[in-house]
């Protein structure tokens, strides 16, 4: 099972090269994983039909009792066959539907196959947490597929709407899963079904939350608005996601949990009322629409309401009817969507008012459509007829609520017959006064997929008994009635058959009066759910704008003051209420007097920040506070922390200086005396409160410090540097997460600078000649030798000549030339000595970054490009790849980030050891180096380029003005 799931995602990752090489024929290759899954599922048919299951489990988070469990039983067998079988045919259909020149085809192909893999994993999941993970994966991939034509506003809006509705429902469902898992003591679905938690308030709330997620996924009213809009997706997406896969996920979840929770108060009213309402509203709406695809969409909404009602009724016969109806719906709705795509492809329109005579022009397509609509209208001998008969029979012998549901179902079935007839009439038959629609022929490969599905519906009508053992194996999870229902095409004359005849006749009458029905439907139409959703979003947007305008006033000082005041209010209220200082040991002012002196100087630098008006002075003073903190680390005996702090402060100050080049010299915000009088006490009170909180927290320790155990553990491995060992071994998970956050933050910040794209564009004329920000803006110097007039000049840097003479410092260039390589060697030394001496990948990456910053400061952005010709993203990505690779290698021993150490001996060096923590630290080194380089390029080189272009434009304007002076007779200054 796992191999099949993984195969979907792996091949999806290679969709781009496959499409680039094979074009649309790549879909034939991409269809292999779902085809293999279908074959595998057929080999497990007998086992599933006998009531057995195929299980697989992997402990994901054993400490929390969370595992990845897969289980193939009767219901999962049905869903796997649908998801994989229909998925295979849809992918084959795509090879004819798309052309080799279709834009963004590779991304679409990969997303469609990845969705198939996520859907397969969803129906096989046997624990609630992994089911939720794959549930949300289907949501994400459906968002990408619906928004395939991202240049169209309607596609983007429809994709976002589907994502919003299904994600909100999914979040509610997750809360329900967590409650059920806690109440049951397990997240294993099969265990919960075998021993459900006792009914109570918590379980009732959890069931309602889970149903909220299921109804939103299956587009049941009031969540049905997203499905019709999702028809903006290409037709293969509609045929797969919205007929056989994604929208069935909610119905599947209801069917999966019904054996355990159908008797919980609230379950039956929700599924029956909302299911019945959806069936009626969707079918009624389909009678007045003119787009064939939208007609099918509202028909799908109606059928999903019917399926939800059947799956949630909670008895054996209704469950059997729900299962066969799930199968029948996929086998008639998917081919109808595919046929609609063929009609659109051949005729260039889906408007049934404009289509006429298509059935005569495309007889084979028409024949396939007729087979599918016969099944949708539940006419014999199609599978749809057998499924509808079983549904009527199940509801007929139920309680009072079931009989009410039966009446609504008959009315909904009449609506189904009506819009089915309207579909086949509007899409294929001739209409008076409408000329025959010109169409082009379609090949047999294009028609093969819908024809195969429609023929399955025809064959399984008389052969529905073949599926009885499998589907009954699922239905038998409910208490058995006195006379269990068994699937067959013909059960003789009876009430169910009479109700089918009534529904068919009612549908025929509605179709005959279609014009008056359409007018009536438009006259009594309520506001559309889509319009209500749009108004809600507009109101929410207006509210957010007003709230943003009230809170976000554009003043950093106001934001900071608000944050500090909230923190003060919370902390002071807790301190005053609990008085945690009682019984706590009194704090010591210092361990040695030197600490007090350094702390006093640090506080003095912080207080001086309040008095300065120049930004540069404020940066320097703020940097001094950081250096003072590093000195405290030194005095306290923490060289690792001190070294890291020194490097971070140095890089931060340089970045601040680079940014300040584009900002005014003085702070622009005017601060009145009374505001300053308020801010200073707030800042001092916040600092004092934090100091008290830190003291109280340290004094509240009751357990023994963990430091001694970590020192012992480090020494046990023959290491000395406890800090580095914690970062890359004992707490490597934290380091890995922080590295990912650091990379994401750096990419986000620098992307704001690059805005459009990170690659450099065409150089301006001045740039092409090697000028930089320091030379473009410089006026030519007089009295300075030019060309061959001077003596030969030594070039200390690779691109030092790009700087104007007055901005060059020979001393700085020489020092940079002498120190650059030693600093790089030092960074590598700090990387590899971290096991026994202060250092590590983080500080080593910072030191290497400082070496590159020195080259930039000495020679400009061209010098930086010479020193680091590779893109920063390469270093960042490679670092993350190495760190993640080390983490995953540990899985071979059963634990993520499991450490190995190799001991060896070299002839000249002697004994050595090399472990995976060192490799992990190398990844951190490369990541930090890439982040620093990215920031310097964005805030240094990119801003340089902006200055250069502005200066070039200014110089060009000045030159144009000088040339224009003589022409107009004006004096040239």
Distance between the termini: 83 Å
The amount of helix comes to 55-70%
Rounded average pLDDT: 81
* Class based on secondary structure composition and strand pairing: mainly alpha
SS field, number of helical segments: 41
Molecular structure report:
- The strands form two sheets. Strands 1-2 form a two-stranded antiparallel ribbon.
- It is mainly α and 973 residues long.
- 43% of the residues are buried.
- The chain starts with a helix and ends in a 5-residue tail after the last helix.
- Helices cover 69% and strands 3% of the residues.
- The radius of gyration is 36 Å and the shape is elongated.
- Helix 1 packs antiparallel against helix 7 (105-124), helix 16 (292-312) packs antiparallel against helix 17 and helix 17 (316-347) runs antiparallel to helix 19.
